[in-house]
Write a structure and sequence with these properties.
By secondary structure, the chain is an alpha/beta fold. Among the domains are: 3-106, RuvA domain 2-like (Arc Repressor Mutant, subunit A, Orthogonal Bundle), CATH 1.10.10; 321-442, Nucleotidyltransferase, domain 5 (2-Layer Sandwich); 494-614, Tex RuvX-like domain-like (DNA polymerase, domain 1, Orthogonal Bundle), CATH 1.10.150.310; 636-709, Nucleic acid-binding proteins (OB fold (Dihydrolipoamide Acetyltransferase, E2P)). The chain is 47% helix and 12% strand. It has 29 helices and 15 strands. A hairpin with a 2-residue loop joins strand 11 (644-653) and strand 12 (656-660). Helix 3 (33-39) packs across helix 5 (49-78) and helix 15 (263-311) runs parallel beside helix 22 (467-485). The longest helix has 49 residues, at 263-311.
Length: 713
């Protein structure tokens, strides 16, 4: 990567150029983000996965920019207008918008008023006016009257059209206007028609809305843009036109001689026309696009944080689960799952209206609890979830069996997916959905990676933001979460394995096939026997794969195989085995890290190894939370202002957090109601899946909206 780009990234991330250079070098050699951030800390100066992901983002972005530069340079060169100065200007661009500004005068365009004027031979007249070399505008125009130009008025009008286009394509003017619009522009939205429909009602807050583009919250901008797209709102971006005109005139008149007779009036009219007809509409669109890009980035960042919290939610672990996908008319689908996630049994119960077969349902549940030695019960939190939970808790459960309400967002998406059909080809979607609910209690990460993150419901306006940028962020988030936790090589699904650093779907399938043919892996080195899993894939993946009970205890740790020899040397120096080193704290406390520093291995890696020996293979996720909703409420009709209720955070946005209080509708804790002091982001106070206590402050029965507060009285 050229120095220009490295310097840009260095300034953006506030890191050293050598860190960027080394990180890019690793990326160019097919190293993954998790591998770089975990096992190459010496080369990157200890950059975390977020910083490495950002460098990767810019690395790919600048590759695309270089391709665009090649197109721009070739087009201008083919026109015979590429000067050394222009080439240098293009090559030194680090901003795609700046590049497009430079390219605009040379870009092939449709036939315009200026094009027609040029066809009439009026460009030399425009040049005379624009350079102020004409002493008398009328006399100059008279010389251009011909069979295509009827009179001086037509000549002057044509020249003004050409000048207006030149002004609109001036890169300096465009950049200065964009800065002004993005700093001082006001966004306003109004209702598009007099009648308010059910669809338009959700935009009621924006029927008379005005806000500065520089500080409009991401969710508000995305809301008004969606409202305009759906035809419910009229949107405008306005700024002070006199200020814009003064910017243009300053550039047009700068370092020019005194204008001849009538020339200033022509230039002023061209400026006015250029601004109103060409510049303002174009800069408005560009400014809204830039503002949306900012809103997209912020919304995607929040989505990524929420997804990470959801994927890293505490698992209950390998326990026998009875999982229920609740329903009224169609009944509740019940499945029993082994500690390895295998489907053992499925049935349907009808404890709710209109069937009301409560006694039969109790008998079936009691039988399954006993027959399959159930340890925990998972109940989906959708339709009939609370009613089903209440019903189950009335049954005499075996000692120690706990009941959990499980967020079922995306379970139906999974149940109809190719992944689900591949896993359970002989079962219908209802069984698959119930299995998904049970498995996501056992291990949220292993199950949720099978579902499109956009279907999980932890973002804001995820269908409105830049989809390629969203996919990049979500893919990075899933990959980083999977590799942060580590994956059991002998039990992981193909889908989970595919997210392991360096593997991918094809090699993951080959691992499954090898496992089926040869039995469980005995060591990480056996991975090299897997079809198409070469040395590079082994290097990138091995440290993130775990083998519990392996002969070499390091195979169940985050210590990379490339450092096994170092660990063995440490053990030999302490006159013990690697196993003793792991078991005995006293041995580990005698390790002098600095003694093992070399050209290849620095203190960061050695300290990581010592830390891992302390708790090899430890799951970084915390213990599972257990909470119960209030028994006083079962629907929005039961709510009263002032009620204090337990809840759990289900979604975090820029403007607040949504909290499940045990009924169909989640309530909103607005950012202003989250703490007694000022906070800039809800994530300062809460995280996803966090149990909280809230107070009801408003209930809107018509729009089914609940306002909550976490403030003290």
């Amino acid at each position: 990567m050229i120095k220009l780009y490295i310097n840009y990234i260095k300034e953006k991330l506030q890191v050293s150029d050598w860190q960027v250079e080394n990180c890019v070098d690793l990326l160019e050699n097919d190293a993954t983000v998790p591998f770089i951030s975990r096992y190459r800390k010496e080369r990157t100066g200890g950059m975390d996965e977020t910083q490495v992901s950002e460098i990767k983002h810019y690395y790919l972005k600048f590759q695309e920019l270089d391709k665009r530069k090649e197109t721009v340079l070739k087009t201008i060169e083919d026109l015979g207008k590429l000067t050394p100065e222009l080439r240098e200007q293009i090559e030194n661009c680090v901003d795609s918008q700046k590049l497009e500004d430079i390219y605009l005068p040379y870009k092939p365009k449709r036939r315009t008023r200026a094009t027609i004027a040029r066809e009439k031979g009026l460009e030399p007249l425009a040049e005379m006016f624009y350079s102020f070399t004409s002493e008398n505008a009328a006399n100059a125009a008279r010389r251009f009257i011909n069979d295509k130009v009827a009179d001086t008025d037509e000549a002057i009008e044509g020249a003004k059209d050409i000048i207006a286009e030149w002004i609109s394509e001036d890169s300096f003017i465009r950049e200065e206007l964009r800065k002004q619009y993005l700093k001082y522009g006001k966004i306003s939205s109004r209702k598009s028609n007099d009648e308010e429909s059910e669809d338009s009602a959700k935009y009621r807050n924006y029927f008379e809305f005005t806000g500065g583009i520089a500080n409009i919250p991401a969710h508000r901008l995305l809301a008004v843009l969606r409202g305009e797209k759906e035809g419910h709102l009229q949107l405008k971006l306005e700024t002070e036109s006199s200020f814009s005109l003064s910017i243009i005139k300053r550039k047009v008149y700068d370092k020019k001689p005194r204008p001849g007779i009538g020339v200033k009036e022509i230039i002023d009219e061209a400026v006015e026309d250029s601004y109103k007809r060409l510049l303002d509409p174009s800069i408005v669109n560009e400014s809204l696009r830039i503002a949306k890009e900012r809103a997209d980035i912020e919304s995607i960042r929040v989505f990524g944080e929420n997804l990470s919290a959801l994927l890293l939610a505490p698992p209950v672990g390998q326990k026998r689960v009875l999982a229920i996908d609740p329903g009224f008319r169609t009944g509740c689908k019940v499945v029993c799952i082994s500690e390895l996630g295998e489907l053992l049994h499925n049935d349907t119960i009808y404890p709710h209206p209109p069937v009301n077969e409560k006694s039969t349902a109790i008998k079936k549940i009691s039988y399954m609890l006993e027959a399959y030695k159930i340890e925990v019960i998972a109940i989906g939190d959708g339709t009939a979830g609370r009613e089903t939970e209440a019903f189950i808790k009335k049954i005499a459960l075996p000692e120690g069996v706990r009941v959990f309400s499980v967020n079922e967002d995306g379970a139906s998406v999974y149940s109809a997916s190719p992944v689900a059909r591949e896993e359970f080809p002989n079962y219908d979607v209802t069984v698959r959905g119930a299995v998904s609910i049970g498995r996501r209690l056992m291990d949220p990460l292993a199950e949720l990676v099978k579902i499109d993150p956009k279907s999980i419901g932890v973002g804001q306006y995820q269908h409105d933001v830049d989809q390629s940028l969203l996919k990049e962020m979500l893919d990075n988030t899933v990959v980083n979460c999977v590799n942060k936790v580590g994956v059991n090589l002998n039990t992981a699904s193909k889908h989970l394995l595919s997210y392991v650093s360096g593997l991918g779907s094809a090699i993951a399938q080959n691992i499954i096939e090898y496992r089926n043919e040869n039995g469980p892996f005995g060591s990480r080195r056996d991975l090299l026997k897997v079809k198409r899993l070469g040395k590079k894939a082994f290097e990138q993946s091995a440290g993130f794969l775990r083998i519990p009970g392996a002969k070499n205890p390091l195979d169940n740790s985050a210590v990379h195989p490339e450092r096994y020899e170092l660990v063995e040397k440490i053990a030999n120096d302490l006159n013990c085995t690697v196993g003793d080193l792991i078991k005995e704290r006293e041995k580990r406390e005698k390790i002098v890290a600095s003694k093992y520093v070399s050209e290849e291995v620095g203190l960061p890696t050695i300290n990581d190894i010592i830390s891992e020996l302390d708790k090899p293979g430890r799951d970084p996720r915390e213990g599972v939370n257990f909470m119960e909703f209030s028994s006083e409420i079962s629907s929005i009709e039961d709510l009263q202002v002032g009620m204090e209720l337990p809840g759990i955070v289900t979604n975090i946005t820029n403007f607040g957090a949504f909290v499940d209080i045990g009924i169909k509708q989640d309530g909103l804790v607005h950012i202003s109601q989250m703490a007694d002091k000022f906070i800039s982001s809800p994530s300062e106070v809460v995280k996803l899946n966090q149990p909280v206590n809230v107070r009801v402050i408003e209930v809107d029965m018509i729009r089914k909206r609940i306002q909550l507060s976490m403030k003290k009285h």
